[in-house]
Amino acid sequence: MNSQKKELLDIVLLACEDAGKKIMKIYESGDFSVQKKSDKSPLTTADLASNETLFAYLNKTGIEICSEESILDVNKRTHNSKFWLIDPLDGTKDFMAKNGEFSICVALIENAKPQLAAIYIPWSKEVFYSAGENQVFKNGELLRPTNYEKAVISGHSSHSVSVDKICEHFGLERKKCGSAIKFCRLIEGKASLYPRFCASSIWDIAAGDYLLAQSGGAMVNMRTNEPFSYAKELKNDFFIAVNASQMQNLQTYLKFAKSLLDD
């Protein structure tokens, strides 16, 4: 890892830890207000506190920031741009449900692709991060899973019928988990497949996409079988994500998932 990337990564990790403390203080107090954004999704005091904290740290880098709560102008999100892409509180509904399954996502985007990323889980104080070199770390330790569970992981409110059909067809257990933590569990080997049959925003998946790729897995567009880019478009299509243990089965999963799109 070059010195510049290490410096940026150190800032990201400090930012996530501090933002996580702000989130947990509000979470444990139970005292937070909830607003409705224009897309009807909830926005809490914790989202705003985390967003403010992340901006305070990342502004020191001199790199533009695109956040779910403060979207960078489209003219600064080109395929030649460099910017931070952050979700200060991924899983706001999980935060409100008090299940602990919410996270902070940070990715450095350059030429429409992530170049560095971290996912921090405030409730458990787990942090997954990478600055490349096909390595992913968890709390300072290089992740090298030796056991991979054959299971499908999905959100609590995901399109159950399609996910259930995948589980039944391939004989896989289904696990449910909130926010970008699903990517972390894939990387750890606690699940093997993550299908998403609904749209997502770029700040939801950029960090997870990068960490998964650096761990030997992959995430592709369910319709086109192409990787995602992160620039002008804020929404992503359906996807299939697998960890390193299931790369040889990716096309098989993809073919079956595509057949469900017409059901």
Task: Walk me through this protein's architecture.
By secondary structure, the chain is α+β, with helices and mostly antiparallel strands. It has 2 domains: 3-142, Fructose-1,6-Bisphosphatase, subunit A, domain 1 (Fructose-1,6-Bisphosphatase, Chain A, domain 1), CATH 3.30.540; 151-260, D-Maltodextrin-Binding Protein, domain 2 (3-Layer(aba) Sandwich), CATH 3.40.190.80. Helices cover 35% and strands 26% of the residues. The chain contains 7 helices and 16 strands. The strands form 5 sheets. The protein has a 7-stranded mixed sheet, sandwiched between helices. Helix 1 (3-29) runs antiparallel to helix 2. The protein is globular. The relative contact order is 0.13. It comes from Candidatus Campylobacter infans. One of its GO terms (molecular function) is metal ion binding.
